[in-house]
TrEMBL record, chain A:
Residues 6-82 form the 2Fe-2S ferredoxin-type domain. The lineage of its organism: Bacteria, Pseudomonadati, Pseudomonadota, Alphaproteobacteria, Rhodobacterales. PROSITE patterns: 2FE2S_FER_1 (PS00197), 2FE2S_FER_2 (PS51085). This is CO or xanthine dehydrogenase, Mo-binding subunit. It comes from the Bacteria. The keyword Iron applies. Gene3D superfamilies: 3.10.20.30, [2Fe-2S]-binding domain (1.10.150.120), Aldehyde oxidase/xanthine dehydrogenase, a/b hammerhead (3.90.1170.50), Aldehyde oxidase/xanthine dehydrogenase, molybdopterin binding domain (3.30.365.10).
UniProtKB/TrEMBL annotation, chain B:
GO terms for molecular function: FAD binding; oxidoreductase activity. This is CO or xanthine dehydrogenase, FAD-binding subunit. It comes from Meinhardsimonia xiamenensis. It comes from the Bacteria. Keywords: FAD, Flavoprotein, Oxidoreductase. The lineage of its organism: Bacteria, Pseudomonadati, Pseudomonadota, Alphaproteobacteria, Rhodobacterales. The keyword Oxidoreductase applies.
């Protein structure tokens, strides 16, 4: 058994290699570990995601499904081989130019699948590209940019994807992302890609039960039966406070469970050791005596009288509740000319980023260093430090690329676990979750059970609305309180509703932990609200778009919280849809007149979304420094998880300074080097960190101008060792060597913070919870198969008011990606614990599911945003699902009350609609 | 313990299987790897991809022979008569191009998933499977080979070496329709394979099979009987009676759809496949 494995010979990117390896090893493992070619990514180990696509003798295969023996004597090509001699291929350049790489984790697989196609077919059309890329899942882009890039690379598609909205500076220009080159070259380092010498691999033992007491058995005896070098860590080894949580007041989740588990997939112990020993370990035999308990699997069960409490002190298993009231909704509805009511139930939705949670931790002297994929470096540092009993300064979170987050990588995952092992052993410790492990143990979108009533007067003016939403927050608090508070604020949609009563609550169950997922409950609420509005418009006999325009908030109007926000752009968005709306209605009518099993329909829905935390502080701080040599360094601590903060913040800083983009070096998030920019969530980075960058840039510019006695309009140029300031014909020079260096090595620097001005909500939810809102409206055109209940979305027209598009290319990417997730939410995504813990039972959209998307960027400047900019990341997903559902109803009469709208549910809803008529 | 045998010829492979009952056959590995979280296949396997006798599609005096280790990609690219069109259509729906490049037709049959894309098509081609062991060879109708979900009639030491399609069944035109909740990379809710032979304007023979609606894909004999002899006009599809479809099937409720829906969808899909075939009736001619 210990004989050295015979070598297997093949070529990789033209180079002959001989690898001593077991012949039945996955090719992906051999490429990544034995050959160090980490450009090939592993997303599922099951052939479901295609991230590991490589070419074998020119044909694309999943490296995770290929035993290395199969490539003996053959030619393997990986992403590292695409850039011949370090020169990006045309395909890679096109990916970069089109924004085809957002988080970048699927990019190597996409590139390889595309490269295989282009060798066979020198001028493929869109359909051929869609089919060739159909085996690679992307969760960020909605595929449009990727398909455009492939077509452009062969001169068969548009060269530019986004308008140039620049007005002199770099703000407004559709620049390719600044961190894009490593993503298309395959050199980017993600959570699983960094392997220091002597690293211990860490595996978790997880609960197979949703609720159970447990006792650990004879671990010593188990260890004796394993290879040498294995170590076990349990809750008893945790030196600090064994609980974490994104909201400190609600922190309730143990890093390793103590005698009791509350959801399937909860970790109870860690096994660490050298890779070979871990691979051989019989983890299934790890000694745990489980005593399963009755599990509470729905909020109904959890709120029932006498139900056991998951957490002491949370009566009724309610983690938190929110409420927004104005006027008298009950009276208003009683007097309304038209009233509709309805209920909607949504499912657990999985983030399904293609990069499962992964990272490595090691000690540098007394400091624990953690390099893991994350959306929230400073929160990771503080929470991990608490669990491990360290002062926050003793934990340093350093950057690695994050292969998609969408909310779930705000919560701790591997950090306290690898931190514990590194701290206890002094050796680097690495953990890479498997796909089923990621799906079981990470957070989900809250399932919602919502009811609402809404009424209007005879002219179609909204007079009142009642809304109640119960959200299954699962075993631990995570972001449940945020959802409970955010939903009642937003459940009105961006409309004037004088009488409003909305409540929301999060309820603990023994289900997976529900946390943050792009929109914090607002997408669920919008599904009910926007579908009810369609029915109300019909009841009032008013065109559905016109109904929304009639009720849309206008500048100076009060929201249901009594706030009068600035830069209200919803009407502009709805108006931008009007031409397509009229055409779409006419086309659908003409199509349907000819009969047949396929009917067409159109639907519209709006969104609004407050950027940043709800009525609590969430500052960001940016530092910019100039070295004696004349290097300008931007300390940018906002985690870029693919959305583009690195690029957007740098664009803002450049224009604030009045310097070209190329003059600025970025120092990426690193808790030792970058001030806290807060978490990447709540669509807050462009707005909040952007404002900090704007302030820091302007402050530094002001210092430079003051040093040279120049006026505000002076031009600044930076050269090695000096700054040149010119004003008309007058030129002045600042010699940097003459200036004193500060402790950070800068001769000139500025650090500025921004915290959005909000006011707390009173007991009726009245106040100013957000300083900036973003607005949007989308229109869906669908086909419904009246015999099968299948739905095909043909086109989405999306108008989003971003205030100011700092980077139209990235903004468009956010919209297209949001639409893909909204489409999945509407039509196919449903996470069921223990049943859909993989990417073939849990479905996310593929290339073939995406419609044509027309994006319309609207710029109604916000008085508070940097250059007028508003947030966008979450907004884009909110209108998609209700717009699709409204189009399904328009086409078929089906009113869906349970999501996703799988074919059998659509067919049943169609029948129910017919029966009801 | 990990072992991978790579025999060069069939007799060597059969000798290994005879000597080591725990050795599992492996070809494209597209079902084997997803079943483990480990970085390598666990246990002992015998790799069949280097065996000449298991590869490729050829004509035989009796009809067509499809080597068990023929990949879906090879099936798509093979020069085959229109009766095989449904098999090619199914091949394009198996997973993704990556899966089609590795996964094999024999593996699809031996894996015996109720939702195996290849099975309805091969049932509608009256396929027989050729099994070999150190003891000798035998032929079995495909319908008798797959005995239940994840169960086959393979005996100890026995290997599926080829699928045979008799010349009589390689006639007519065919269509495969797959229904899933997304466009690509999807496990079927229901799928149908239909082959019609039209002579002098009438259906001379019909083969109709449905997958993912019973533990093993089924031929729908009552539906076939209702089609045979009828005029190949657009009215033909109306002869597909829901009751005849339902009688042959026993679907379950699962995360993809409920049983009642599957029965309805199967009938709709069979009618559509029939209808599309008669619209191009010329191609159905034997």
């Amino acid at each position: 058994m210990n004989r050295p494995a015979p070598a297997i010979g093949f070529s990789v990117n033209g180079q002959a290699v001989e690898v001593p390896t077991a012949p039945a090893r996955r090719l992906s493992e051999v490429l990544r570990r034995a050959l160090g070619l980490t450009g090939t990514k592993v997303g599922c180990d099951a052939g479901d995601c295609g991230a590991c696509t490589v070419l074998v003798d020119g044909a694309p295969v999943c490296a995770c499904l290929t035993p290395v023996a199969h490539v003996a004597g053959r030619a393997v090509e990986t992403v590292e081989g695409l850039a011949a001699g370090g020169e990006m291929s045309r395909l890679q350049e096109a990916f970069l130019a089109h924004g085809a790489a957002q988080c970048g984790i699927c990019t190597p697989g996409m590139l390889m699948a595309a490269a295989a196609l282009l060798r066979q077919n020198h001028r493929p059309d869109r359909a051929a590209v869609e089919e060739a890329l159909s085996g690679v899942l992307c969760r960020c882009t909605g595929y449009a940019a990727i398909i455009d890039a492939v077509l452009d690379a062969v001169g068969n598609g548009p060269a530019a994807r986004a308008p140039d909205l620049g007005r002199g500076g770099v703000v407004g220009r559709p620049l390719p992302r600044l961190d894009g080159a490593p993503k298309v070259l395959g050199t980017e380092c993600y959570g699983a890609d960094h392997l220091p010498e002597g690293t211990l691999e860490v595996r978790a033992i997880r609960s197979p039960h949703a609720a159970a007491r447990f006792a650990l058995g004879d671990i010593g005896a188990w260890l004796k039966a394993q290879r040498e070098g294995l170590m076990v860590f349990t809750a008893a080894d945790i030196p600090g406070e064994n609980r974490f949580g994104t909201i400190p007041a609600y922190a309730d989740q143990p890093a390793l469970a103590e005698g009791r588990v509350r959801f399937r997939g909860e970790a109870v112990a860690l096994v660490a050791g050298p890779a070979e020993a871990i691979e051989a370990a019989d983890l299934a035999a790890f000694p745990v005596a489980w005593e399963p308990e009755a599990a509470l699997l729905s909020p109904d069960e959890a709120e029932a009288v006498g139900a056991p409490l998951l957490h002491p002190g949370r009566a009724g298993n309610i983690v938190a509740a929110g409420r927004v009231c104005c006027g008298d909704a009950e009276v208003a509805l009683a007097q309304a000319a038209h009233v509709v009511e309805g209920a909607v139930e949504t499912a657990f939705v999985e983030h399904a980023y293609i990069e499962p949670e992964a990272g490595v931790a090691w000690m540098e002297g007394e400091t624990l260093v953690i390099r893991a994929s994350t959306q929230s470096p400073v929160m990771d540092r503080d929470d991990t430090a608490r669990v491990l009993g360290l002062a926050p300064e003793r934990v340093r979170v350093v950057p690695c690329a994050t292969g998609g987050g969408f909310g779930a990588k705000l919560d701790l995952s591997v950090q306290p676990l690898i931190g514990l092992v590194a701290l206890k052993t002094g050796r680097p410790a690495r953990m890479v979750w498997t796909r089923p492990e990621s799906m079981a143990a990470s957070t989900k979108r809250h399932p919602a059970r919502m009811r609402a009533r809404v009424g209007c007067d005879g002219e179609g003016r909204l007079v009142g609305m009642e809304f109640d939403g119960v959200f299954d927050t699962g075993a631990y608090a995570s972001w449940g309180p945020t959802v409970a508070v955010r939903v009642p604020v937003h459940a009105s949609g961006p409309y004037r509703i004088p009488n409003y009563h909305a409540t929301g609550r999060g309820v603990h169950t023994n289900n997976p932990v529900s946390g943050a997922f792009r929109g914090f409950g607002v997408p669920q609420a919008a599904i009910l609200q926007e579908t009810l509005f369609d029915r109300l418009a019909d009841a009032a006999g008013i065109d559905r778009l016109e109904f929304r325009l009639r009720n849309a908030l206008r500048e100076g109007d009060a929201t249901v919280c009594g706030q009068r926000p600035g830069g209200v752009g919803i009407a502009a968005c709805l108006e931008a849809l009007a031409p397509r709306w009229r055409a779409g209605l006419a086309e659908a009518e003409a199509w349907n007149a000819s009969g047949g099993a396929i009917r067409r329909g159109v639907g519209v829905a709006s969104c609004w979304y407050g950027c940043g935390n709800t009525a609590i502080a969430n500052p960001a701080t940016i530092r910019i420094g100039i070295t004696r040599e004349g290097r300008v360094r931007l300390h940018q601590g906002a985690a870029d998880i693919g959305q583009g903060a690195d690029t957007v913040i740098t664009q803002i800083a450049a224009d604030a300074l009045g310097l070209p983009l190329e003059a600025i070096e970025r120092v990426g998030y690193d808790t030792a080097l970058t001030p806290d920019c807060g978490k990447t969530s709540g669509s807050r980075q462009t707005f909040i960190t952007g404002n900090a960058a704007l302030r820091a840039g302007r402050a530094l510019r002001a210092r430079i101008l003051a040093l040279s006695n120049a006026g505000a309009e002076a031009r600044i140029a930076i050269e090695p060792g000096r700054i040149l300031v010119s004003e008309g014909a007058v030129r002045r020079e600042i010699r940097l060597a003459d200036l004193a260096e500060d402790a950070q090595g800068y001769v000139l620097s500025a650090e500025e913070s921004y915290d959005p001005p909000t006011t707390p909500l009173d007991e009726n939810g009245q106040g100013a919870p957000y300083a900036v809102y973003g607005w949007g409206a989308q229109m869906a055109e669908v086909e419904v198969d009246m015999e099968l209940g299948t739905v095909r979305v043909r086109r989405i027209t999306a108008a989003h008011d971003v205030g100011r598009a700092i980077n139209p290319l990235l903004a468009r990417g956010q919209i297209e990606g949001g639409i893909a997730q909204g489409l999945g939410l509407a039509l196919m995504e449903e996470y069921i614990p223990a049943r859909t813990e993989n990417l073939h039972d849990y479905l996310i959209p593929t290339t073939g599911d995406m419609p044509e998307i027309d994006t319309i960027l609207i710029e109604v400047a916000d008085p508070e945003g940097p250059f007028g900019a508003k947030g966008l990341g979450e907004h884009a997903l909110i209108p998609t699902a209700p717009a699709i559902l409204n189009a399904i109803r328009h086409a078929s009469g089906a009113v869906l009350t349970r999501l996703p709208a799988l074919p059998h549910r659509v067919l049943a809803a169609m029948r129910a609609g017919e029966a009801g008529r | 313990m990990q072992e991978l045998f790579r025999p060069r010829d069939l007799s060597e492979a059969l000798a290994i299987l005879a000597a080591r009952s725990e050795v599992r056959p492996a070809a494209g590995c597209t079902d084997l790897f997803p079943a483990t979280a480990a970085p390598a296949l666990q246990g002992a396997h015998i790799d069949l991809t280097a065996l000449e006798e298991l590869s490729g599609i050829s004509r035989t005096p009796e009809g067509f022979r499809v080597g068990a280790a023929t990949t879906w990609r090879e099936a798509i690219e093979a020069d085959l008569p229109p009766a095989f069109e449904m098999l090619k259509e199914a091949a394009r729906e198996v997973g993704s191009p990556q899966i089609q490049n590795a996964g094999t037709i024999g593996g699809n049959l031996c894996n015996a998933s109720p939702a195996a894309d290849g099975v309805p098509c091969l049932l509608a081609l009256d396929a027989q499977v050729e099994l070999a062991s150190a003891e000798g060879r035998r032929m079995l109708p495909l319908g008798k080979f797959i005995t239940g979900p994840r169960q086959t009639a393979l005996g100890p030491g026995e290997l599926l070496v080829a699928v045979h399609v008799p010349g009589e069944a390689a006639r007519g035109a065919s269509r495969f329709l797959k229904l899933g909740a997304r466009r690509y990379l999807v496990i079927s809710i229901a799928m149908v394979a239909v082959r019609l032979v039209v002579e002098e304007g009438r259906v001379a023979s019909a083969a109709v099979a449905v997958g993912a609606c019973s533990p093993v894909a089924r031929r729908l004999e009552a539906v076939e009987a209702a089609l045979v002899g009828a005029e190949a006009t657009p009215a033909l599809a109306a002869r597909v009676r829901a009751a005849d479809v339902a009688a042959a099937l026993s679907p379950i409720d699962d995360v993809r759809a409920d049983a009642g829906y599957r029965l309805e969808a199967a009938a709709v899909l069979v009618r559509r496949a029939v209808s599309e075939l008669v619209t191009h009736a010329g191609e159905c001619a034997a």
